[in-house]
């Protein structure tokens, strides 16, 4: 599958640039996604099966869990009397509801339930079954922690203390049981109401119901005890406070009477005789001072305008002055602003010398003088008003001073007396209020009221709440599918091998020559069972005098197969690209060893010979002559002796069965170390020239590319090179980089043929609209068994 859109032809001048096309939109190709799913279906199915197996193991090793639920209702008030005394709002607000949940989960309630059910002696609670998954997780944690403990320095321990007493051990056990119980209790608010559901899960249904009910009862008891304790503390505080208030009220009343008698303070209607006179003088003085301040402020405003002079109106005519409160001045100021605006417009449009502009300037100047005169008049009026108000303030101050002097001493004493009387009255009122509340609380102390009641007790659950078989299997199936999808995505991402013709054209930048289906070379049986298996055709009579090599050739045994048609396509492409050339030397090579280049060379030579051409097949791989060994030729002379001039190359020829293909083998007794020098020698070039003159097609089975230089030496002597790539094994980047680094090889490359193709799996790597999906339909067509076309 294509992973990245490498634009080789756009980045390297050695590859012909493709025709510019409109960039595809950023859309999701569903067909490619479905193809990836089809390719990875086995991985996903195996992953889902493993997930289901793990789910079954989890269900088989996990004990059933029973959940019991009890419900309690939290009302609106905790204690009405205490609330009224303390003035604290204890309504069932959101904060109160949250606090109630924390109280249920608190340690005192857990300890109360522990004692109520005697959980420290309950074997069902203490020896709970452990699921296999928890055992595995704990084992993994221990394995991880073991090396950490080894490298972590241990903390030096102090001197050992005295051993714990049995009471301390029992208390510690009780504490641990309560902590474990509190960690497993679940408190949930029902909707937006004040109802709470207390849930407890256990493998023992009876224990689950007992714990849920005990928690509800313990919570009610805890609130009753808390209310009683609060009432007791409130009563004690009120008692102490009443004693203090009673003493303070008595002392304040005595102090007020003593002060009245010592200072001979007699009042009428609760006030001294001179107090009304002083109050009236104070009111008159305040009014006079207000009038004087207003007159002074107005006079200052007018004085500021006068200090600026008439030029101020002329220089600041656009803004004017703040004359709020005088309608006449405001009207005159508006007229001045209007004249100024008209003057500015006339000067801007017609110039300063325009008659109308001169007339308007005169009107503006006259208006400024009138406005200035009016301000001067108002300033004099304000001055007079200020002098009158100042004299009145001075007179009232003198009168008030005389009245205050007369009654100052009596007033101060009266004020002190009033303060003493008010203090005594306040203390007496507070004492009476606290006394009333104390009596109410003392009466209700014997029957405290709780705001919580149990709505429903928990019943012993008959059916387990978990683990749910369907839910666990569904979750494990989904997790298995997700894991399979992740593994499949990773496999797709790592799949960077040639699989389709689109990969060859887009990622390598070469012509695609076709697919060669995989077949068993041992018996020549084709992979596709639907393809025809016609009897071999007898093409040519054996050549007298040439040794015959008996070896079945797949393309001749199945001439109407997809394999043979692909080889014919290579022959046709070669003849078209070298139009007008009668003798052709073609090299067959690959990037890596074992990609089937020798088999392709043998079958291609047979197909060319079957079309009436004279074909010579030369094994040109001295290091590893796989073609010669495949044909069983291990002795005699061959290419090496002919290229070195030690033997006539025509004497070393063989003929392959009745295919008509002449073969020049390469027989080497051992590893040849100087094969590149031999292939590049003068004798080799003369041999190829003589073969070109004698045969119409000379096919060279070259050594694989890569680090081996043998094939590169022979490339200048050939007309064309066919690259053989193994389907799903040849990396795209390796083939592309090899061709890019060899300009001479790229120039002579006819194209790339994909060998050993799994035709069934190929359909998973191409879009639904690709032609590869219809190759299956050509099986009967190749065999000639199809109906009317």
UniProtKB/TrEMBL annotation:
It is found in: Cell membrane. CDD domains: BY-kinase (cd05387). It comes from the Bacteria. InterPro entries: Bact_polysacc_biosynth/exp, CobQ/CobB/MinD/ParA_Nub-bd_dom, GNVR, LPS_length_determ_N, P-loop_NTPase, Wzc-like_C. It is a multi-pass membrane protein. This is Chromosome partitioning protein ParA. One of its GO terms (cellular component) is plasma membrane. It holds the Pfam family GNVR. Residues 417-492 form the Tyrosine-protein kinase G-rich domain.
């Amino acid at each position: 599958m294509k992973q990245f859109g490498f634009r080789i032809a756009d980045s390297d001048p050695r590859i012909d640039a493709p025709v510019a096309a409109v960039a595809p939109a950023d859309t999701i190709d569903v067909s490619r996604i479905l193809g990836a799913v089809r390719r990875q279906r086995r991985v996903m199915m195996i992953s889902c099966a493993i997930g289901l197996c793990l789910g079954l193991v989890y269900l088989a090793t996990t004990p059933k869990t029973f959940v019991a639920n009890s419900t309690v209702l939290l009302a609106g008030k905790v204690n009405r009397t205490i609330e009224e005394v303390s003035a604290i709002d204890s309504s069932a607000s959101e904060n109160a509801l949250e606090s109630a949940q924390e109280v249920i989960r608190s340690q005192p309630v857990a300890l109360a339930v522990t004692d109520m059910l005697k959980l420290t002696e309950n074997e069902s609670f203490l020896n709970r079954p452990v699921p296999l998954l928890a055992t595995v997780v704990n084992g993994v944690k221990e394995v991880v922690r073991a090396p950490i403990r080894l490298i972590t320095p241990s903390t030096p321990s102090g001197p050992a203390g005295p051993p714990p007493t049995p009471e301390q051990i029992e208390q510690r056990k009780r504490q641990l049981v309560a902590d474990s119980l509190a960690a497993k209790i679940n408190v949930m608010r029902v909707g937006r109401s004040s109802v709470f559901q207390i849930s407890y899960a256990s493998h023992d249904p009876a224990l689950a119901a007992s714990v849920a009910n005990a928690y509800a009862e313990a919570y009610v008891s805890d609130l009753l005890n808390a209310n009683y304790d609060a009432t007791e503390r409130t009563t004690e505080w009120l008692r102490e406070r009443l004693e203090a208030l009673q003493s303070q009220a008595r002392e304040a009343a005595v102090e007020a009477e003593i002060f009245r008698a010592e200072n001979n303070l007699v009042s009428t209607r609760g006030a001294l005789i001179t107090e009304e006179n002083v109050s009236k003088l104070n009111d008159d003085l305040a009014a006079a001072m207000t009038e004087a301040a207003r007159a002074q402020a107005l006079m200052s405003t007018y004085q500021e305008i006068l200090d600026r002079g008439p030029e101020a109106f002329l220089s600041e005519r656009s803004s004017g002055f703040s004359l709020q409160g005088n309608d006449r001045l405001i009207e005159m100021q508006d007229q001045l602003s209007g004249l100024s605006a008209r003057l500015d417009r006339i000067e801007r449009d017609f110039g300063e010398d325009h008659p109308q502009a001169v007339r308007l300037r005169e009107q503006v100047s006259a208006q400024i003088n009138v406005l200035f005169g009016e301000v001067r008049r108002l300033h004099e009026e304000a001055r007079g008003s200020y002098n009158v108000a100042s004299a009145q303030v001075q007179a009232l101050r003198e009168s008030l001073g005389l009245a205050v002097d007369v009654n100052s001493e009596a007033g101060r004493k009266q004020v002190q007396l009033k303060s003493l009387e008010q203090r005594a009255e306040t203390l007496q009122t507070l004492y009476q209020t606290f006394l009333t509340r104390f009596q109410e609380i003392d009466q209700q102390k014997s029957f405290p009221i709780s705001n919580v009641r149990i709505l429903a007790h928990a019943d012993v659950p008959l059916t387990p709440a978990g683990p749910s078989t369907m839910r666990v299997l569904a979750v494990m199936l989904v997790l298995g599918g997700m894991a399979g999808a992740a593994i499949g995505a990773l496999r797709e991402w790592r799949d960077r091998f040639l699989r389709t013709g689109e990969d060859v054209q887009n990622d390598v930048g070469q012509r695609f020559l076709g697919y060669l289906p995989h077949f068993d070379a041992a018996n020549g049986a084709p992979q596709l069972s639907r393809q025809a298996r016609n009897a071999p055709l007898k093409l040519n009579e054996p050549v007298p005098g040439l040794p015959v090599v008996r070896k079945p050739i797949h393309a001749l045994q199945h001439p109407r197969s997809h394999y043979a048609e692909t080889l014919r396509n290579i022959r046709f492409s070669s003849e078209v690209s070298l139009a007008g050339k009668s003798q052709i030397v073609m090299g067959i090579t690959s990037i890596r060893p074992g990609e089937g280049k020798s088999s392709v060379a043998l079958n291609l030579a047979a197909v060319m010979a079957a079309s009436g051409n004279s074909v010579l097949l030369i094994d040109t791989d001295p290091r590893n002559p796989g073609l010669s060994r495949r044909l069983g030729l291990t002795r005699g002379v061959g290419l090496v002796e002919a290229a070195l001039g030690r033997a006539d190359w025509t004497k070393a020829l063989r003929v392959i069965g009745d295919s008509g293909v002449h073969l020049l083998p390469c027989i080497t007794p051992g590893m040849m170390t100087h094969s590149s020098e031999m292939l590049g020698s003068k004798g080799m070039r003369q041999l190829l020239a003589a073969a070109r003159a004698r045969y119409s097609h000379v096919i060279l089975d070259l050594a694989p590319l890569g680090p081996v230089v043998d094939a590169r030496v022979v490339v200048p002597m050939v007309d064309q090179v066919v690259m053989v790539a193994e389907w799903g094994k040849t990396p795209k980047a390796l083939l592309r980089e090899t061709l890019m680094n060899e300009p001479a090889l790229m120039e002579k490359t006819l194209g790339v043929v994909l060998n050993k193709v799994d035709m069934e799996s190929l359909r998973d790597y191409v879009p639904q609209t690709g032609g590869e999906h219809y190759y299956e339909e050509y099986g009967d067509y190749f065999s000639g068994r199809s109906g009317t076309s």
